[in-house]
Amino acid sequence: MPKLLIVESPAKIKTITKFLGADFKIMSTFGHIMDLPENKLGVTITPEQHIELEYVPLADKAEVIAQICKQARACDEVYLASDPDREGEIISWHIGQEIAKVLKKGVMHRITFNEITKPAVEKAISDKREIDLNKVYAQQARRVLDRWVGYEVSPILWKKLSKGLSAGRVQSVALMLVCNREDEITSFKVEEYWSIHGIFTIDGQTFEAELAKIKGKKVALATGEQTHALIAELQKHAYTITKVTDKKRLRQPAPPFMTSTLQQDAYNKLGFSVDRTMQIAQKLYEGVPLGDKDSPEALITYMRTDSLRVSEGAQNDARAFITKTYGEKYVPAKPRQHEAKGASQDAHEAVRPIAVDKTPEKIGKYLTNEQAKLYDLIWKRFVASQMEAAEYFQRAVHVEGGDSEFKATGSTLMFDGFLGVYISSEDEEEKSVSIPKSVAEGKGVELTKADGKQHFTKPPARYTQATLVKELKDKDIGRPSTYAAILSTLHKRNYITEEQKRYSPSELGRAVNHLLTEHFPDIINVTFTATMESSLDKIAEGDLARDAVLLTFYEKFSKDLEAFGGAPGKKEAQKTDLTCPECHKPLYIRFGRSGEFMGCEGFPDCTFTSNYTRTEQGTIMLTQQAPQQPESTGLSCPKCGKEMLKRIGKFGPFISCSGYPACKHIHQERLKMPCPQCGKAVSKRAWKGGTFWGCTGYPHCKFAIFNDVEETPCPQCQSPYLIALKQRGSDARKLSCPNKECGYTAA
After folding, report:
1. Active-site position among 302, 392, 463, 503
2. What is the pLDDT of residue 567?
3. CB atoms within 10 A of CB 105
4. Per CATH, is 259-385 categorized as 1.10.290.10?
5. Model-level pTM?
6. Is 302 a residue of the active site?
7. What is the three-state SS of 449-476?
């Protein structure tokens, strides 16, 4: 009987089938198959203080489950081969539970592989094991925490701010980081300072040095006046080289990629979004055809990892390749070992090419442009990580005269080492600064020129995708599989805006952050979130119990939740320093269906509203637009005889009686023809998607036309009207008969 091997992604099926042959049937779960229900919490705390989870099949997955179970019933052995992380573990657990209901004689095994190669897959089959329930419990704990925060906090945000909002245990902390950074920027006070740089001449050659000390103390210059006065004094003195220090400095290569550093470098070097990087990497991991379209080959190891470990075989292959390609001097005496601080997924390797001899030059022609760029980045980073250090010759020169001391530091690259292959984006190659060879202690030098340079202190920079991912990683917020999802959610909820590739909180994001950090200070903070991530890791390692961690969280969370919910009352609003120009009461930022606006505290007695802008310094300014004046139409109201005016409403222009509100007549455009279904009039109506023609007998008659209409009978079937459609790329219109059986069209 055949054996069944089940993977997450269908893209792996061809590759693994090629490795294992006819003895194995390869099937896919297409990702997760079960989850908590969408329409209710799905998490219960029993009287005995146990956590019970309700799982239901995901939409469209019932058929997938049924097909896999049908195949499993006919097999002696079933191998659960979903991805090698916690999400993969629970996918195997879920499908394993379904298979167990129908599997009579066969046995099930859990296997994992970090790379999709024949040796790795065959080794995984020989190293079969049971489901790691600790990993399952860790995934369940994360899911329950996220469900509690999302399902119980989000509805309160709807009541207090606006519908459609969401809170998240990790997502909300990421939003807090963006908001806190914006607060730092707006509160930053710019300060002026100056530096002095001298050009010195020795034996006909020049070098630049910076003023470091006056009377043995560090120089601190606050104004141009101070600086220029000091320059005048400096030019009065003779100068001598008092100290020359030469030393060799080694610069070590960066380690191979983990998820976060891959996302950062791909963003900085290639301009790829975090989400796009993971999509491309997923394809490189699952396999790309190299020549034979029916035989995809996996190119990189698993891309969701925070480990820097590299297998001994991969190290040896890299060292052999470097020796052959670059020479023995580029290979360190011992293989390089890199360790990641606090790695929770160390069972994986770092992100690296599976075969180092598959160079970007060899396989680039088989890849898409984006795939080729990302593979090139991964390949070079890995090869460089196993190479010898770069070597610099560094010379420091101290020049003294009067009470002043200048210092110059020169650096010359003597051996490029790994720099010949790769330079990381956060560690760009330093510039070489040359200092004349004739420089020696005791020699006199001439100060030929001295200049002052004005500087201003700068606020911290707004986050980019790369720097926010780095911050999340450094603060232990989230895990490799969540970084892209966190950023994506912040965008989808309109909590952040991105301008020139830098993040700012939206007004909505500020409001959500204010509410959550005020009412959940013990949960929506960096320390708690990092501690919780550590607790999840300990659950996965078997050192903590799932329910103990969850119950401890919920004890505090439920109290904060009750206080936060309270009575619905009025919608929350952010008080500003501005006052209403009409009644002089405070103005508040409020949130409506169309977005945020400025509204008066005195509402409904005072109905003043305005748009507004926020300056770089955080100052709020009103930008109220003058109301558009109604236009005369020359028509008279058929009800009261007053003039009909053209106005601009929520859905665009309309014509109504100037006697409003006494007369509420609104002019309606009508077709000459009656409704073909009930005989009543057909008029033009407006909705949020534009305008349409609808029967005035609605809701009893639902006849509607969502296109322009030309009331010309169809020459073929005599339909009373034709539909006019704009042709793409031009202003020309194409007429067609609404009767599908007719099919008449005309230009």
Report:
1. 302
2. 47
3. 8
4. yes
5. 0.76
6. yes
7. EEEEEEEECCCCCCCCHHHHHHHHHHCC
